[in-house]
Amino acid sequence: MEVMMMLVYDQPGVMQRVMGEFNRKRINVETIVVGKCEMPERARIVLSIEDREKAMSVIEHLRALHEVIEADLVDHTRHEAYALVQAKEGVCRITGTVEEVDSMIRKSQPERYIQAMNAI
Amino acid sequence: MMKGARAAVELLEEQNVKVMFGIPGGVLLPFYDELVDSDIRHILPRHEQCAGHMADGYARVSKKPGVCVATSGPGATNLVTGVATAFMDSSPMVAITGQVATNVLGNDAFQEADSFSLMMPVTKHNFRVTDPKVFPETMKKAFMIATTGRYGPVHIDIPVDIFQAEITQEQMDREVRVPKPKRNLADLLDAIKLLEKAERPTIMVGGGVAWSMAGPEIVRLAEMLMAPIVTTLMAKGSVPENHPLVLGVCGMHGRQVANYALNNCDVLLAIGTRFSDRVTGKLSEFGTKTKVVHVDIDSSEIGKNVKGRVGLVGDAWTVVNALIAGLQKRVKAQTWRDRIVQLNKDCDCDHDLRSEPLKPQKVIFELSKNLPEDAIVTTEVGQNQMWAAHFFKCYGKRMFITSGGLGTMGFGFPAALGAKVARPESVVLDIAGDGSIQMVSQEFATAVENDIPVVVCVLNNGWLGMVKQWQKLFYGSRYMATKFAGSPDFVKLAEAYGADAARVERPSEVAEAIRTACRSEVPYLIDFVIDPEEDVLPMTPPGKTSVDCIKGRCPWKGGVA
Prior knowledge:
Chain A has helices spanning about 15-25, 50-65, 100-105, and strands at about 1-10, 30-35, 40-50, 70-75, 80-85, 90-95, 115. By secondary structure, chain A is of the alpha+beta class.
């Protein structure tokens, strides 16, 4: 799993343009989080995709977009993962490293598993 | 204070726009009202697609952004083909579309289409102006983006209320900047070493060389390296084809000697090209024995199609000059050079140009011979384009303008009109097919009305020729939807619009017809009735290598090209 981070302008149409590049290269985005960031009028996109070669093939195209200020692959081993799991108490939130969250999900009953968002 | 429409016109004038190609509509009325008082020449095509192609043709000749305008909804959707054509060939363009007012935007108003989304994948960048305060900066940015780094079309979608809003002088005066593409010449030394060691170097030039006008420098580099130059379709005309080291167009319908040099070199210096599938054939087989040095202004092109290469990011002119300055030893390739020059002399097609019915090659041969040294040739797409690319000799101030990337039928005629507007003193001639010209024949009205005397040479074989050729070669001659049974009389058609026209059926009449057409002061159509059985050969089938080349009458004896 590769994690990519982009700094973009915070305005309508940016997501469509960025996702358009993934669409054209037939890359499925596994997870994505977008939000405002510490800089005014900027937003950060953090997303993960499976294949490193595909990540490399799209990144130069992303950098060429005028609404993308930075695009880089990030070292994601230190990043925290987040997942929602159906438990007795209701929907539970688990966080930890990617490996920890993965093993928690494996341990819980798969049909109870709602959603896992890796490396965000 | 001024209205947005006034601001738009002033911004265009400030950008030194001399001519624009557009069709008005409801939401553009405030803008067109201001154009009444402007000196900008406005040309009214009969279809928005042609407005795009005219701006494109204008840009390719003037090297300045062409400006085209269309209204909202159907205007914008019609314009998409013109913009996409410019995008694929990296032609600078500013495309303006009107849009319904911001307060109804998104509500399916009359003549509303989401042109911002429609244009997004076919532009270098596009804007939808929803705030009048940033309108002037947006216009300035559009022109800068179109001509910074790798050229390309920029689209601005302008809702009608932006044209009616108040713009302040402060907003008009705001300076804008766009990021310059980064140059990366870190591998320059590696590239120089590879080239110095090369025993069989070949230089392949693409459209980037035409845009940066690096032709003379590349010829100098080729002479230093003793390397032959092959061109892609887009680069035709950027290096003089009467030079012994210039081998002409390579690829699917390329000259055999060009493909030979491309496939048998040990080091390939590729400049300003994106390794299109029409050049490489089967990509996995391309350049397996070759070390590739790839020069491009767009870093995302390096390694996109051909992997494992030395990449230099920068514009062709700068990088080629850096290579020239850095090269030292360069005497290794004499044998290779001599062999290629000899093969180039021998690479000639075996056609009986006097035979009847008239052969298309005869027409192109006579064009090559009779057109002035500064003529601009445009083409449509299909067999006409490939015959022109293969047989027309482009050198001196001649230019060759064609839709290489998108392959848009109907491009050549409107592009010729745009080219003639940009360089009125030159003969501008469109090499067309009977299929292509029928897609844009209404533009004879534009040509006559605006006094733009271009020549259209229709190579009329009564078929959608290239598709027919593929049906013949790859689908067992099962022809479907490629025969025209009811084409108009092209001579009468042109005359109906007020143009002059002639029909030519005999080889002996070709040269005189061309000379007459070039002297004409009104638009002129020549209907060349050609042999419908003639194919474009040699041809490397799609996805194959030169081993599988269908040679036809080609007498090539140089070995596997």
